[in-house]
Structure formats: structure tokens, C-alpha cells
Amino acid sequence: MRLALWFSVVAAALAVSAPAAAGVVEPDERPDEQFDFMNLLAHHGLHDNEDERWNFYGQSTEITSFKLPFSAPYTGTSSLSPNFETSWTYTLTLYGGVKLWPGAEIYFVPEVVAEQPLSNLKGLGGAIQNFELQKGGMTTPQVYRSRLYLQQTIPLGGARTQLDSNPMQLGGKTDAHRLVFRVGNFSVIDFMDKSSVSGDLRRSFFNMAFMTYAAYDFVADSRGYSWGAEAELDWDNLSIRFARMAPPVNPNSQPLTLEIDKFYGDQLELELDWKLFKQPGAMRLLGYRNVENMGRFDDALAAFQSDPSKNAASCTAYNYGSTNANAPDLCWVRRPNTKVGIGLNLEQWLTKDVGVFFRGMISDGRTEVYSFTSTDSSASIGATLKGALWHRKRDLAGLGAGVGWISDAHAAYLAAGGVDGFIGDGAIKAAPESVFEVFYRLNLIATLSLTADYQHITNPAFNAARGPVDIFGARAHVEF
């Protein structure tokens, strides 16, 4: 595992001698800060980043964190351990794109993941301290395909726009008015609910509360990916996106259902971009509707109260491993149900080096988490500051706060001893779960960086009887 990371470090070091390509701009970088494999080829006249037939990128990230002991009068089977713990993740990702015919591109992204979560990934609702963690991950590296999809762009006129060469984007000119269709294997948050301020979390925040809306139960397998289709209309500073994706057969599991006409997740997003005092900003309004075979919290409580034999210990269907014979379980009441939510994403650059963001979402809170976190409503705010402010132009600092809530029905189910995908202390003093995070990313050479991170989490698993929790982390990240 460490060999792959150091291979990436060597690749970045070799690339440091190459000047940056003028057209490549990442959300938290400027063109003179770009050093990568594609720019190295372009520098030697072996590749045209502004009219690409293909491109290839990669990244390697290792995150290590430790949790200090905290106060807890009781601990359940799905609780965060109150003892000292360490956690780590490692990812290696390769991004490849090829142009097939005019407007058509295919992308393939294999990935390697290994991990050791805190408390077997139990006991945190929406404030999971490391966004790279996956349900069912292992300490042994796992190789899998994260994305394989076809993209077709149909130009509709307007001004000609230059697209930068990036992972999962070929550099080239296109119309400002265009239709884009994608079909295949990808994550819906590859293309929806983006933020140029927080950017790619492998470069900025650690906590999952800042990856997307914590209350956005976007359909995906246990690794965060799915099969489906997405359509996007771009018209100058306005974009409209719609996607239908396949959910897993069981909550938080790997196999996906093939009955996408019966069980599915739909999402619709409207994005409006602007400039305020010559600095870019954006608003994104997103709504989702999932139809899945999932249990309602009030149904699980009612089933247990009417027949105590329908408890967590006696359940033989898919459940979360609870052996509590005195608690309800969602496995008894799973049937086709609908889950909906709506969210607002705002961002604004105050100067070229200082940006702020806000996300807020309300979901209905009636049903169990199926693919993402245990949060029913969420909000997050934050800011990132580029190091040019203190003459370290490739460094980045940030601070953010996220808060999540659960519904009354969800709290009543947990109070009765029930568990869901990630939480269940056996009892609960219901309260909002919150996280405050601050990080500093130090750029070493080229695209190799080290990041120090601190997180303070209150009311873990929405339970004021336990916590607060302090977590310290470090990250090594390299791109090539």
C-alpha cells in the first residue's frame, strides 16, 4: 500500500520541472500552480491539453486520525467507542478519458481502497470524520471499478467555451449552450452539488459533513457509486441537471437492484452562476426523490409494540446485527417507500483567495438511511483561504461548521433501542449533532501536500448524553 503512495510521490517530483499549462484551473489552484503528467507531456510537445483525444490522471491519498477518550455513561452495539482509537484510509485512483467520435467520450476510473474506521464505522450520524471511509471496507487493499460511463455532448450554439483538461474531463472547445448526456457507472455527486470553495475534499476538509449535504441520501452502493443516467442542459450561466440512479438491493450494501423502473433515486438540480463585485458565486437548488424497499421508523415501533416477537434479535431478514430482544427493528417493516428532500447550496468568492460556502437540506425523516448518513436535516458553512494571502500560494487553510438533526420519529425509534445503518446507542437524549473543523494544507513539491486537521464533534449520534469528541488527523496527498 505504501509503495503505491511513494510511486505517486516520485511521479509528482518528476513533474515539478514541467511548467504549467495555461488552461488547467482547479477550484483552489491557479494555472501557475499546476504540475501533472499531462502538463509534462504538453511541455515536451507530446500532448495538446486544449484539444485532447485522451487524458490520464491519478491521485493517491492517505489519511490517519486518532480520537481522544470522551465521556459516555453508556455504550450500545452501534455506538462510537469512548476509548482512544486510531483510524486510517488509503486510496489510489486512476482517471482515464478517450474521445470516441465528435462529442462522445468514455471515462474509466479504477480505484484501490483500504481502511480501518473508528468503532467499525458506528456511532457518528452525519459528522463522520473521514469522507473516504466506506461501508464494509477492509484493511486489505480492495481493487474495483468506481466509474465507467459514456458521455455525449450536443452543441446548441452560443459563445465558444474552453473546457480545461481535468480528471473525467477532456480539454477542448465547446458551445456555451449544450446538452450533455451521461450513462453508465458513476456517483451522482460527481456532477451535482459541486462547490468550488470547499472543492475536492482530498485537498480540503476531512469530514463527510462537507462532502455534500449530510441529509442527502443519494442512491449508491456501499462504496458511493451506482449505475444510471444523467442529462444536463448548460445555457451560459444557467445549468439544469436530472439523474436517475439505481439503489442497492439492501440498505448500505454493495449489490445494486436491476429493477430501476421499480426502485430508483431521482434528483433534479438547478444551478445559477454569477459575479458579485467581479468575484464568482453560485446558487444550486437540488431536490431528490427515492423509491426504495425501506422501513419507516414509526412502522417499526408499531410492529414491535403490537407484537414483541418482532424484535431485533429474532429478525432473520437483512438487518444491522443488533441482538436486542427488547428493541424494534426496521427489518420487519421494509416495503416500497418514498423518501424526499430539498437542499440549497450557496458559494461566493469574496476575493480571489477567500471563498465562503453554505449548504442546507431538509429530508422528510420518516424512513431509514439507505445509502448515505443517518441525518434527516443538515446545514454546513465554511470558508477556505488560499496561501497567497501569506506568501504560500500553494497552501490552503479552511474552517467549517456542520450540524445535523434527526426527526422525532427517528429519535423515538433510537430511544426504544433501535439501530439504523450507522447509529444506535440503546437510548438517546436527542440533540443536534455538530462538527467544527479546521485544517491547514502545506504544499511540499509539485502536487504533493501534507494536511493537519482538527475536529470537535458534539452530541455524536444525535445523543447529548455522550461526548463531545475530539479528533486529530493528518493527510498525505499527491496527484499525477
Description:
There is one protein chain. The protein is mainly beta and 480 residues long. The chain is built from four helices and 16 strands. It has helices spanning 2-15, 37-43, 297-306, 408-415, and strands at residues 54-67, 85-101, 104-116, 142-163, 172-186, 226-235, 238-245, 264-276, 279-294, 335-349, 354-363, 377-386, 396-405, 433-445, 448-458, 469-479. Strands 1-2-3-4-5-6-7-8-9-10-11-12-13-14-15-16 form a 16-stranded antiparallel barrel. Helix 3 (297-306) packs parallel to helix 4 (408-415). The longest helix is centred in the N-terminal third of the chain and has 14 residues, at 2-15. Mean pLDDT is 91; it is low at 1-35.
* Total DSSP helices: 4
Mean pLDDT: 91
Evaluate the radius of gyration. Answer: 22 Å
Shape summary: globular
Low-confidence stretches: 1-35
The biggest sheet, with number of strands, parallel, antiparallel or mixed sense and barrel status, is: 16 strands, antiparallel, barrel
How far apart are the termini? 17 Å
Structural classification: mainly beta
Classify the helix fraction into a percent range. Answer: under 10%
Strand order of the largest sheet: 1-2-3-4-5-6-7-8-9-10-11-12-13-14-15-16
Helix-strand sequence: HHEEEEEEEEEHEEEEHEEE
* Share of residues in strands: 35-45%
What is the number of beta strands? 16
* Assembly state: single chain
